[in-house]
Each structure stands twice: as structure tokens, then as C-alpha cells.
From TrEMBL:
Residues 137-385 form the Saccharopine dehydrogenase-like C-terminal domain. SUPFAM superfamilies: NAD(P)-binding Rossmann-fold domains (SSF51735). PANTHER family: CARBOXYNORSPERMIDINE SYNTHASE (PTHR43796). Residues 4-133 form the Saccharopine dehydrogenase NADP binding domain. InterPro entries: NAD(P)-bd_dom_sf (IPR036291), Sacchrp_dh-like_C (IPR032095), Sacchrp_dh_NADP-bd (IPR005097). Transmembrane segments: none annotated. It comes from Gilvimarinus japonicus. This is Saccharopine dehydrogenase family protein. It holds the Pfam family Sacchrp_dh_C.
Length: 400
């Protein structure tokens, strides 16, 4: 039916390649391209059918355009790093190819997540008659679709939204991040921010925290308020929301290491001079930390990511919790990756499938909550990320 090019051969790229390869009726041809082609070849060798590989530096628009013109894919799935988003969008426009990513653009020199740079491509994609789907991972991605689904089927208006991301898995390493360490640490060490009555409220990094009791035997865990990019698009597209927050679990051990690394300057993105060479401490730290892809065989336990929405239905106040439970070892058995890469890669494949099947179509730049949630939700159940929705009538601790 269609040809896709996956750019990026890290933890997430591996899962996307596996999941696309499992659906030959949709993804007839697959090209896996990345900066280091040998990593593409390692992934290709694990797949149930042949895919081609290519080398590309996606920061170089001309190089990406040349590859796209040679390969002529229908769609690019960008699972490189957020720094490449704009360059790959430019290349897609020039080569006439649709675009999908899982994380919003971030300038390398500043830890700042904002959609403004990618929303600025709205006119260019519309005029070119091309579609760009932003943030088709889990969070952002599935969490946006969950919100749209609750709004469509359960609540007339959503007033309070809490997105809660729990990784109850254990990899047994003293300190490691579950996805790209540089992106992960930039995100976690930034100020917390949440939406309240039409304004952003800032908190010191990881200052606001509380306990939340997770389902599926996970039990109570400490959750920490962070800024996360879907808050920006969801509050734009559902302006009735009075308060929207994002929370993530961290173990005491992770936080202790992060604090020490922060205190000694190792998480800084300010360049420092070392033996006549300029280095960025966080990039040096990344070189020392385990590659997230190597955590796959080691990680045991579950993830639970979901949304609690408080709102009204037919004038009555209601609260719903919608979530997925994913098991690290089951993911590894299926696609040789842990659940963090799996929960990102599966929605990237489904977003691509929605576009190629024209269930989601339209020129311009789209966030996930703007599109019909139903076919995407069906595919989550079918392709490895089943969800459940429960009505909550007891206090959860998230009321305030
Ligand atoms: P990794 O660091 O494991 O992989 C990144 C890949 O991108 C590597 O193969 C890397 O190549 C490649 N790459 C980096 N720069 C370039 C470039 N200039 N040109 C071509 N390829 C390049 O990251 P992950 O797989 O963990 O994450 C991938 C993306 O998914 C990130 O954007 C991340 O933010 C996002 N993500 C989204 C989540 C969500 O729920 N929405 C959750 C988790 C991640 P090389 O091997 O040469 O370095």
C-alpha cells in the first residue's frame, strides 16, 4: 500500500521498524535511515522481512532531500531527536512527503519545549497540500488522543486534566535513563509548569509532588509535577480546560543521582573548556550513561500512563481515569525493547497507519487531539497498547 522512511535508529526507531514490519499490508516498503547506518542494519537483521537502510545526517536538509527524492516514500516517521524536527520538516516540504514525529522541536542551545516553531509551518504544509502529524508517541501522543476520546464519549466539558506517567520498572542499574539521556535530563531538570485559569504557573524543578495509588498492582508511588509539551496543544485545542498538569514518577535513587550530578554541573548544557576543547557537560554525561536500548533485556516491571479528567456530563460532575498498562519483559519478548521505547514506537506506527489509510487526513500541521480518536483507540487495542477507562467516585488525591 505505501512506502515509509523511518529516520532514527535508537530505542524508538527499533520499535517503529518492528511494528511497521509486522504490517506489510500497510507498510509495503520500509527504509530505515539514520546518522549511523550500522545501527539501522542491526535493527534490520532482527525484522521478520527485508527492509532497506540508509545513512543520513538529518540536520543537513539537502542530504535528506536527496535521500527522499531517491527513495520516494509516502511518509517520513521522524524518530531521531527533537533537534532535527525542523530540518526534516523542511526536507519533507521540498521533496513533497508527509511528516510525523513524536517530540516537539527543541533548540539545542536552550532547554525549551514549545510548539511555536512547528506551528509556524502551518501555512507551508497547507500550501504544499502535505500533512504533518506532531507528537505521535505516548506522551505526547496517546495522552492527547485519550483526552479527545474522553471529550468525545464521556464528558461534555473537561475542566481539570492530570496526565500521569508511571514507570514502575527496574533495570537494576545504579543510574540510567529510559530514553535518550540528554533529552530526558533536559526535560526533568527544567522548571515545572502547569496551566491554570488561562495562564502558565511555574514551579521549581520537581518541587511539587504527592503520592498516587496506581492500578494493576503497582500501588502508591510519588509523582512529580513537570512541564510536558502536550499541555500546550491540549489547552489550546480544548480551551474549556481550567487546569492541566503533567506528573511523572521517579525513584528516590534516580532523584538522588540527578541531584548530585546537577550540583556538580554535569547536567548543564552550557559549554565548558576541557583540555583545549569545548564540551557540553550533559553530552559528556550521555556518553558515560548506559544506552537506553541496552536496558531492554534488563528491565522488569510495568508502566502505567494515563489521564484523569474531571468535568461535566449532562450537567453532572464526573471523573474518569483512562490508562494503559505495559509490561517491560513482554515488550522485550516481542520487539527486543523495553516498554518506554515500545509505548512511544507503537503509537508512531499507528499514527503513520492512520495517515496512510487516510483515516486521518488533511493538509497542514496537526496535533493528535484535533483528529478523530476512535480509529486510533481501536488500533491501540489491536497493536499492543490496550487501554481501559474507569469512572472514579472516590478521592484520588488529584482533586486539587
Ligand atoms: P535515541 O537517542 O535512542 O535514538 C535517536 C536516534 O536518532 C539515533 O539513532 C541517532 O543516531 C539518530 N540521530 C540523532 N541525530 C541524528 C541526525 N542528525 N541525523 C540522523 N539521525 C540522527 O533516542 P530514542 O529512540 O529514545 O528517542 C527518539 C525520539 O523519540 C526522541 O525525539 C525522543 O524525544 C522521542 N520520544 C518520545 C516519547 C513520547 O512518548 N512522545 C517518549 C520517548 C522518546 P546516532 O546513533 O548516530 O546517534
Amino acid at each position: 500500500m505505501a512506502k515509509v522512511m523511518i529516520i532514527g535508529a535508537g530505542g524508538v526507531g527499533g520499535v517503529v521498524a518492528h511494528k511497521c514490519a509486522q504490517l506489510p499490508e500497510v507498510f509495503t516498503e520500509i527504509v530505515l535511515a539514520s546518522r549511523t547506518e550500522s545501527k539501522c542494519k542491526v535493527i534490520a537483521a532482527q525484522l521478520p522481512r527485508p527492509v532497506s537502510t540508509a545513512q543520513v545526517d538529518a540536520d543537513n536538509v539537502a542530504e535528506t532531500v536527496a535521500l527522499l527524492k531517491r527513495e520516494k516514500p509516502d511518509l517520513v516517521i521522524n524518530v531521531a531527536l527533537p533537534y532535527q524536527d525542523l530540518a526534516i520538516m523542511d526536507a519533507c516540504l521540498e521533496a513533497g512527503v508527509d511528516y510525523l514525529d513524536t517530540a516537539n522541536y527543541e533548540p539545542p542551545e536552550e532547554a525549551k519545549f514549545e510548539y511555536k516553531w512547528q506551528w509556524a509551518y502551518q501555512d507551508k504544509f497547507t500550501e504544499a497540500g502535505r500533512m504533518a502529524l506532531l507528537g505521535s508517541g505516548f506522551d505526547p501522543g496517546v495522552t492527547n488522543v485519550y483526552t479527545a476520546y474522553l471529550k468525545k464519549h464521556y464528558l461534555d466539558e473537561i475542566h481539570y486534566l492530570d496526565i500521569i506517567d508511571c514507570n514502575a520498572g527496574d533495570h537494576g542499574m545504579p543510574f540510567a535513563t529510559n530514553f535518550n539521556p540528554e533529552i530526558n535530563i533536559r526535560e526533568v531538570t527544567a522548571n515545572g509548569r502547569y496551566w491554570q485559569d488561562g495562564h502558565w504557573q511555574e514551579t521549581a524543578p520537581l518541587k511539587e509532588n504527592r503520592s498516587f495509588d496506581f492500578p494493576a498492582g503497582i500501588g502508591p508511588k510519588q509523582i512529580y509535577l513537570m512541564y510536558h509539551e502536550e499541555l500546550e496543544s491540549i489547552t489550546k485545542h480544548l480551551p474549556e480546560i481550567k487546569r492541566a498538569r503533567f506528573w511523572m514518577t521517579f525513584s528516590d535513587n534516580y532523584l538522588k543521582h540527578l541531584e548530585v550530578l546537577g550540583n556538580i554541573g554535569m547536567t548543564s548544557i552550557e559549554p565548558v573548556e576541557f583540555e583545549g576543547k569545548e564540551i557540553i557537560p550533559l553530552q559528556f554525561l550521555k556518553a558515560l550513561l548506559p544506552d537506553p536500548a541496552s536496558l531492554g533485556p534488563l528491565t522488569k516491571g510495568k508502566t502505567c500512563i494515563g489521564c484523569i479528567a474531571q468535568g461535566v456530563k449532562d450537567g453532572v460532575k464526573k471523573t474518569y481515569y483512562i490508562y494503559n498498562i505495559c509490561d517491560h519483559q513482554e515488550c522485550y519478548a516481542e520487539v527486543q525493547s523495553q516498554a518506554i521505547s515500545y509505548t512511544t514506537g507503537v503509537p508512531a506506527m499507528i499514527g503513520a497507519k492512520m495517515m496512510l489509510e487516510k483515516k486521518w487526513a488533511g493538509a497542514g500541521v496537526w496535533n493528535m487531539e484535533q483528529l478523530d480518536p476512535d480509529p486510533f483507540m481501536d488500533d491501540l487495542n489491536q497493536y499492543g497498547l490496550p487501554w481501559q477507562v474507569v469512572e472514579i467516585d472516590q478521592p484520588t488525591g488529584m482533586e486539587k
